[in-house]
Amino acid sequence: MTDEEIFRHIDHTLLKATASWAEIEKLCAEAIRFKTASVCVPPSFIRPIHGAYRGEVNICTVIGFPLGYSVSAAKVREVEAALADGAAELDMVINLGDVKNGAFGRVEDEIFALKKIAGRNILKVIVETCYLTREEKIRLCKIVTRSGADYIKTSTGFGTAGASLEDVILFREHIGEGVKIKAAGGVKTREDLEKFINAGCDRIGTSSAVALLAGKDAKDY
Q1: What is the pLDDT of residues 9-45, one digit of tens each?
Q2: Long-range contact set of residues 172-178: C-beta below 8 Å, sequence gap at least 24
Q3: Which of 23, 24, 91, 199 is the most exposed place for a label (fewest CB within 10 A)?
């Protein structure tokens, strides 16, 4: 697999609380140079990126991040604001409390509501696998499929563990036609990147891909 092929699957990510505009500019320059699928950034940076780069980068942002327990009305407003500011892709975190309380209908209703607002824009659903049982993962595959979301995503990268190949394979077996898979968290080597893509991931969220694939040369950007 070539570097170019791998970059096409990368959501080039910077979500740390202390991210600076200089770091975001570097992220965007790398995304443009290496043709990553998107940049994944905090909501507060959507409008500045959109204004500075005028469509040169595909902007992804996060909703209800990283804990997911915002009320649905707050997540709806986040989606509306993100789209108005120029985001094209949205990575939402489900309410894990609802999952653990068996309120799967609430989870499905929330995803459906956010996808209705997103429309043709891509909605990825973060289920945070490190906190789920196998049965919960399978049930969420069905819910994500029925709700019309575009992706199921393993992790925020802020939980107790990130993506695993076992979870990607499980998702692949239980998601419906048309739903894609994104892995995030813990994908740290070139071998990891290839393994996850070959296992069925259409996207990988990572801050490490440019450093791994482009090496020292990328530090100039």
Answers
A1: 999 999 999 999 999 999 999 999 999 999 999 999 9
A2: 172/199, 172/200, 174/137, 174/138, 174/141, 174/142, 175/141, 175/144, 175/145, 176/141, 176/142, 176/145, 176/146, 178/150
A3: 23
Per-residue tokens: 92: 């939402």
Angle at the Cα of 47 from the Cα atoms of 44 and 50, rounded to 5 degrees: 135
Considering Cα of 72, then 76, then 201, then 20, what sign does the dihedral take? negative
The residues annotated as belonging to the active site are 91, 153, 182
Are 127 and 153 a contacting pair, CB within 8 Å?
Answer: yes
CATH code for position 210: 3.20.20.70
Encode pLDDT of 210-221 as tens digits: 998 976 444 433
pTM, rounded to two decimals: 0.95
Q: Give me the residues paired with residue 203 across strands.
A: 182
